[in-house]
From TrEMBL:
PANTHER family: FAST LEU-RICH DOMAIN-CONTAINING, LD45607P. GO terms for molecular function: RNA binding. It holds the Pfam family RAP. One of its GO terms (cellular component) is chloroplast. Signal peptide: none annotated. This is RAP domain-containing protein. GO terms for biological process: chloroplast rRNA processing; mitochondrial RNA processing; regulation of mitochondrial mRNA stability. InterPro entries: FAST_kinase (IPR050870), RAP (IPR013584). It comes from Astrephomene gubernaculifera. Residues 688-749 form the RAP domain.
Length: 759
């Protein structure tokens, strides 16, 4: 027996080294997915414990099989025998089995309990397959299905050592995965049978058999995955050498999907699967195309060796979206392809993105669940769609409008988890799209607030706070829940559990600062905890603990705390945490924050827009005209600014000091990050800040409303220049002005200055 085992192992090893694709049996249609490790296994010698990844030595397998006293049966009926027994009519009201129609699980259970141990192995195998296809609803249905599988597993187990065809092992494994039923004895025996005798059954396995094995293991508990490591390793060798005649598109798609689930990337295998898919793409199902692109994205297949395959798969998707086949993509397909495009970033993806988003909008996102909507919106936003300044930006904003409306509809987000909410709001904030009151009401429903409080991780909380702040929103109930959850997570982090990442800390503090000093004061307990965590990490990790963006956010937060410190409450105490930790006058952390702000000012100083150049020229012309005209007394600049911004015409705006003494571009100002676009000094000692606000300073779908960061900047500038001395020039108003004269009159009204001849 032992010599026969050794001989078969040597033969199997040789077959792994020199197996040609033509010698492998043709594939059947597939059901599953697959993956392999990153190691190159082609020349690896498969010894008797080649499946040592299973944790069970070959001798243990040998002893188990010896303990079974059944004679070697050559079970050849397989599905053919099952068909005679009656696996028929999957789409009919019932399934024929042993001459009877089985309509439900109770009927199958009764038959199995009565006689399963006396059935032929192929009948037991057929019954296992049938059990997965019968109706099963709710928790009670799952319990009943597990009872059926328990009876059938016990009946099938004695026959496993004698199974002679690979599908007799892989279909039961697939069924266990579908039912999430993992009988240790049966699963271990099935894996052992596939591994037994040097993996003889794997030599016979079709593409479908391999795919079912991989798909099952991608759903299995970790201990079974470890047991199957060597088996999957050997399976990958065979799959790599299969041709397009042996691997259909569903085989390839399911194996890729399993690789993604198992997080195993083995480029030779993945490239072979992708190449087979490309050759079969005209006949591939839409789901196969979607799943394959999604899997390649999960596995990070962005290199040049994948570029051609990815582009050809994308081209096939695009072609189908332009015709009647577009309707065959289910919502999850559309969402997954968008998500994949964001990760893969293939060249020329813009038209495909446009087609996918248009199809989502055409359907009004009907049929999309919470994850589908949030992932689609997230992907579109991350790919830069919806930017108001872009030629198609306004049209693309309608995509996000449709997503927000769909998410606001009753029931759409009923199954949403905290990440779904986080991704959706994060996407809307990235494109500066205010979703309206309905979505705000939806996320604040008791059931969703409970989900956020109980299961949101630190990234979810930080992203939601950041999104609300960016959109200029403050919803007390929602913010209270997020702050409470963050406090719990922060407390857990001190005990070694997961805490906020390097961007989550400054994001959360910055978001509360944008919402205003009152919000910082209301949640001072969390603010103190977050600040102390920042200091702790800085002392342990130094500059690696924060990005430059994070340092700027902390500096902006510190300005709000400084303002609070001048009043009552604990603002002074909070301000000193970053400013004077350990009794130092100025901490290294504060120095790093100030350097980051200075770097941002230098970068801003080098960025002068055409509008700013035009505005500077207009102000210089005003300066010359006003210097030769007498002063008139009139309204304040603040009042005139409101009139000009609301397109009030015929108003007479003058100031007591009409002479412009100086015009300075890109001026750094204490108390605010970046540079002020233009600082004017007017006769009488008055200084004014002029800010040219472009599309990014306003909500894209509600243009007069400034974003949260812009409101924060205005607030900090007013503390320096005084109320009424911060004037913004909206880009769309400036763009409407035709010629120098129109610009001069516009700025005169905006600043409260009277040109000669005005009354």
């Amino acid at each position: 027996m032992l010599s026969r085992l050794r001989l078969s192992l040597r033969c199997f090893t040789h077959s792994l080294r020199c197996h040609s694709a033509s010698s492998i049996p043709p594939a059947h249609t597939t059901i599953c997915s697959s993956e392999t490790e990153s190691r190159e296994p082609a020349n690896r010698k498969l010894e008797p414990d080649v499946f040592r990844g299973s944790g069970i030595a070959a001798g243990a397998w040998k002893e188990w099989f010896r303990s079974t006293e059944t004679c070697q049966l050559n079970i050849t009926r397989g599905f053919a025998g099952a068909a005679r027994s009656g696996i028929e009519g999957r789409n009919t009201p019932g399934i024929r089995f042993q001459g009877n129609i089985i309509h439900d699980l109770p009927t199958l259970l009764a038959k199995a309990e009565a006689r399963a141990r006396a059935w032929h192995p192929s009948d037991i195998h057929a019954a296992i397959d049938i059990s997965i296809k019968l109706p099963c609803q709710g928790a009670d249905g799952v319990k009943l299905l597990h009872r059926v599988l328990a009876v059938l597993s016990a009946a099938y187990l004695p026959h496993v050592p004698n199974l002679a065809q690979p599908h007799l092992c892989t279909i039961p494994l697939w069924a266990c995965a579908k039912a999430d039923y993992w009988d240790r004895q049966l699963v271990t025996a099935l894996l052992g049978r596939l591994a037994w005798d040097g993996g003889r059954l794997l030599v016979q396995a079709s593409g479908k058999n391999h795919a079912n094995l991989w798909w099952a293991m991608s759903k299995a508990p970790n201990d079974f995955v470890e047991e199957a490591d060597g088996l999957l390793h050997a399976s990958a060798i065979f799959v790599r050498n299969m041709s397009t005649q042996q691997l259909n598109s569903q085989d390839c798609s399911n194996i890729l999907l399993a690789c993604a689930r198992l997080q195993r990337r083995h480029d030779p295998l993945l490239q072979q699967l992708a190449a087979c898919l490309v050759q079969q793409r005209p006949s591939a199902k839409c789901q196969d195309l979607a799943n394959s692109l999604y899997a390649l994205a999960v596995l990070g297949c962005t290199g040049g060796e994948y570029a051609t395959a990815v582009q050809q798969l994308c081209s096939e998707v695009h072609q189908r979206l332009l015709g009647p086949s577009a309707r065959t993509f289910v919502p999850q397909n559309l969402s997954n392809i968008l998500w994949a495009l964001e990760r893969l970033r293939p060249d020329g993806r813009e038209e495909l993105v446009q087609a996918l988003a248009a199809e989502c909008q055409r359907r009004s996102f009907a049929g999309f669940n919470a994850q589908d909507i949030s992932n689609a919106a997230w992907a579109l936003a991350k790919m830069g769609c919806g930017e108001a300044s872009a030629p198609s930006g306004r049209q693309q904003q309608d995509w996000f409008k449709a997503a927000a409306i769909a998410a606001s509809a009753p029931g759409t987000m009923s199954g949403a988890n905290s990440q779904d909410w986080s991704n959706l709001w994060y996407a809307l904030a990235l494109v500066r799209h205010h979703p309206g009151p309905s979505l705000l009401q939806a996320v604040q429903a008791e059931v969703h607030l409970e989900v956020l409080h109980n299961s949101a991780n630190s990234q979810d909380c930080a992203n939601l706070l950041w999104a609300l702040a960016t959109l200029g929103l403050y919803e007390q109930r929602l913010v209270d829940v997020l702050v409470k959850r963050l406090g719990e997570l922060l407390q857990g982090a001190s005990k070694g559990r997961e805490g906020l990442n390097e961007q989550g800390l400054p994001n959360s503090l910055w978001a509360l600062a944008v919402m205003g000093p009152d919000v910082l004061s209301r949640h001072s307990g969390l603010v103190e905890g977050l600040l102390r965590e920042v200091v702790r990490r800085w002392q342990q990790e130094g500059k690696e603990s924060l990005t430059r963006e994070g340092l700027v956010q902390l500096w902006q937060t510190q300005q709000e705390l400084k303002h609070m410190s001048s009043g009552r409450g604990n603002g002074r105490q909070l301000h000193r945490i970053l400013a004077a930790a350990n009794g130092e006058r100025k901490t290294p952390l504060l120095d790093a924050m100030e350097r980051a702000v200075e770097e941002e000012r230098v970068a801003d100083d080098n960025a002068v827009s055409p509008i700013q150049e035009q505005l500077t020229q207009t102000l210089a012309q005003l300066q010359r005209q006003l210097a030769s005209s007498p002063a008139l007394v009139g309204q304040t600049a603040s009042t005139c600014s409101k009139n000009a911004s609301s397109n009030v015409t015929g108003s007479s705006c003058t100031t007591t000091g009409p002479t412009i003494l100086s015009i300075q571009q890109k001026q750094p100002v204490d108390g605010t990050s970046g540079c002020v676009d233009i600082v004017l000094e007017v006769e009488g000692g008055r200084r004014m800040a002029l800010e040219i606000y472009g599309p990014s300073n306003f909500l894209a779908n509600h243009r007069p409303t400034k974003t949260g960061p812009t409101q924060l900047r205005d607030r900090q500038l007013e503390r320096v220049f005084g109320a009424g001395n911060v004037v913004s020039v909206p880009y769309w108003e400036w763009g409407k002005l035709q010629g120098p004269k129109a610009r001069e009159h516009y700025m005169a009204r905006l600043l409260g200055l009277a040109l000669p001849g005005q009354t």
